[in-house]
């Protein structure tokens, strides 16, 4: 700008800003990552701060920002980007676009920005799909590796800070309301797909993981060898004792009638004298 190269501060730097930068650089599919904290080293001078792009601008200069050279950042707070090249194989933390074969970061799904260029990452059906949970590779239907379907894609949960409270919520989502316990790390083998959640903080009273404290979707520092598992159970059925009869209960047997005094004790019995010589 004005004949001078400089950096962008990472304050409020987002995927929308990264997409505008990459497209301006000639990468029509936009960015795969928006980076902060001087990932590629400190930059100076800082020319832009508080950049707030919508994502559809053709130039970074079209986005709102604090003003040229106006900032409150140190050189260690500069932003960076990784732009998308067309690829045929995507990693587990990426989404493969349907028609362009490009790979974008999994957390770019359903963010209202057409990162793929073909709208496949913003597919309405995908983005409106509900959060589902299942247990995989366990010995029965009550236990297994925890897998979640978010934005139409199945992935796993990291076991960092994963305890009985988190296990209880997951089992509740499966309508298994008995005692629940977390399984040891990797008990049911490694899963596939993105690791959707990490550092869950449930109290145990929630009805869904969406109500628990957690890192943002797909943000983690885990491997699939750390995939969480649970052991659920059905509620313990309490044995009910027979209810006592009340005065309003219907009387249906002769014994009941006798006990209530409605019939003589010898009702229905043939009365004979105690004389063995008399024939019956």
Helix content: 10-25%
The total number of structural domains is 3
Round the mean pLDDT to the nearest integer and report it.
84
Total strands: the figure is: 12
Indicate the radius of gyration in whole angstroms: 34 Å
Question: What is the CATH architecture term of the largest domain?
Answer: Roll
Shape field: elongated
Order of helices and strands: EHEEEEEHEEEHEEEH
Pfam families: Ldl_recept_a, SRCR
Biased composition (Basic and acidic residues): 236-248
Keywords: Disulfide bond, Glycoprotein, Hydrolase, Protease, Receptor, Repeat, Serine protease, Signal
Organism: Daphnia arenata
What does this structure look like?
This protein is α+β, with helices and mostly antiparallel strands and 280 residues long. The chain folds into three domains: 7-84, SRCR-like domain (Mac-2 Binding Protein, Roll), CATH 3.10.250; 94-126, no CATH class; 129-231, Roll (Mac-2 Binding Protein), CATH 3.10.250.10. 11% of the residues lie in helices and 16% in strands. The strands form four sheets. Strands 7, 8, 9, 10, 11 and 12 form a six-stranded mixed β-sheet that branches. A two-stranded parallel sheet has the order 1-3. A two-stranded antiparallel ribbon has the order 2-4. The termini are far apart. 34% of the residues are buried. GO terms for molecular function: serine-type peptidase activity. Disulfide bonds join 9-73, 22-83, 53-63, 158-222, 171-232, 202-212. Keywords: Disulfide bond, Glycoprotein, Hydrolase, Protease, Receptor, Repeat, Serine protease, Signal. Pfam families: Ldl_recept_a, SRCR.
């Amino acid at each position: 700008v004005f004949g001078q190269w400089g950096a962008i501060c990472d304050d409020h730097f987002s995927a929308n800003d990264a997409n505008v930068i990459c497209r301006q650089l000639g990468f029509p599919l936009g960015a795969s990552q928006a980076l902060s904290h001087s990932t590629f080293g400190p930059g100076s001078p800082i020319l832009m701060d508080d950049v707030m792009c919508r994502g559809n601008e053709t130039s970074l200069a079209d986005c709102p920002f604090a003003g040229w050279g106006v900032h409150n950042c140190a050189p260690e707070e500069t932003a960076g980007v990784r732009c998308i090249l067309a690829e045929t194989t995507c990693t587990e933390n990426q989404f493969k676009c349907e028609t362009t074969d490009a790979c974008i970061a999994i957390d770019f799904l359903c963010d209202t920005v057409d990162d793929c260029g073909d709208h496949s990452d913003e597919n309405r059906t995908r983005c409106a799909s509900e959060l589902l949970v299942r247990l995989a590779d366990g010995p029965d239907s009550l236990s297994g590796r925890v897998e979640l379907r978010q934005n139409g894609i199945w992935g796993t949960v990291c076991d960092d800070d994963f305890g009985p409270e988190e296990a209880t919520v997951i089992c509740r989502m499966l309508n298994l309301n008995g005692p629940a316990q977390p399984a040891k790390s990797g008990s049911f083998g490694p899963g596939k797909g993105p690791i959707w959640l990490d550092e869950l903080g449930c109290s145990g009273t929630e009805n869904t993981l969406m109500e628990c404290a957690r890192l943002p979707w797909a943000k983690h520092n885990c491997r699939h060898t750390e995939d969480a598992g649970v052991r659920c159970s059905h509620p313990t059925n309490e044995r009910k004792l027979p209810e006592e009869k009340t005065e309003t209960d219907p009387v249906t047997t002769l014994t009941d009638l006798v006990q209530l005094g409605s019939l003589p004790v010898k009702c229905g019995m043939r009365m004979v004298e105690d004389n063995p010589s008399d024939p019956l």
